[in-house]
Write a structure and sequence with these properties.
Strand order of the largest sheet: 1-2-3-5-4
Order of helices and strands: HEEEHEEEHHEEEEHHH
Helix content: 25-40%
Radius of gyration: 18 Å
Structural class: alpha+beta
Number of strands: 10
Distance between the termini: 44 Å
Largest sheet: 5 strands, antiparallel
Shape: globular
Length: 204
């Protein structure tokens, strides 16, 4: 075990209790369990990249840093899991007790998609684009509200330049595609125009 890994393990010692491994691939291992905060134990998710293969280590670190950086900003906004611990090769984020969109299937639930659109406005005002909202499992349906998770592909922008505007537009288009599937009657004329107008990146 490297010194950096040891530092993460030392900080987490006695604070993290793993219950189940949710996913393991060449980029990370994701576990669900309990994390002890100053206010007490909470349900949480641990992502760790200390066991990835050597050949995927560079990309694994890049994805890990993207998620860590985005959660620092998005976590306190009430639209994403809070970041509870951030190490060099491990991070712990809070657990949102919600149902992924593809399981919830909110047919006709216009209020949910209003919540999701408001979420995107908050996220984008913070200078973050998610970049992976085509996946329904990254949208959570909890108590009628929308949340997003899995920020490995997210980008944080200091300036709202052309790249930010393009990524923001793609985030919106992905949301509206889900809305078209589950609540097509709630689409506005402006939203239909967005769906009909693909960005240059999408056309390429």
């Amino acid at each position: 075990m490297s010194m950096i890994e040891g530092e993460d393990q030392k900080e987490l010692s006695g604070r993290w209790r793993s219950d189940v491994v949710l996913k393991r691939d060449v980029f990370s291992t994701i576990e669900r369990g309990r994390f002890r905060t100053e206010a007490g134990e909470v349900e949480a998710v641990l992502r760790r990249i200390d066991g990835v293969p050597w050949w995927s280590r560079g990309l694994a670190h890049l994805l890990f840093r993207r998620e860590r950086r985005a959660l620092v900003i998005a976590g306190p906004l009430g639209i994403a899991p809070p970041l509870l611990f951030a190490g060099r090769r491990m991070l712990v984020r809070g657990w949102i007790d919600g149902v992924p969109l593809h399981i919830a299937k909110p047919h006709g639930d216009a209020a949910h998609f209003r919540s999701a659109k408001a979420l995107l406005r908050v996220l984008h005002r913070a200078g973050i684009t998610h970049n992976d909202l085509a996946k329904e499992q990254n949208w959570l349906y909890a108590d009628g509200r929308a949340y997003v998770t899995d920020f490995q592909l997210a980008s944080c922008f200091r300036r709202r330049g052309a790249l930010f505007r393009l990524a923001r537009y793609e985030d919106l288009r992905h949301l509206l595609k889900h809305k078209r599937r589950y609540a097509p009657g709630a689409l506005t004329a402006a939203e239909r125009r967005v769906l009909a107008r693909k960005s240059y990146l999408t056309r390429v």
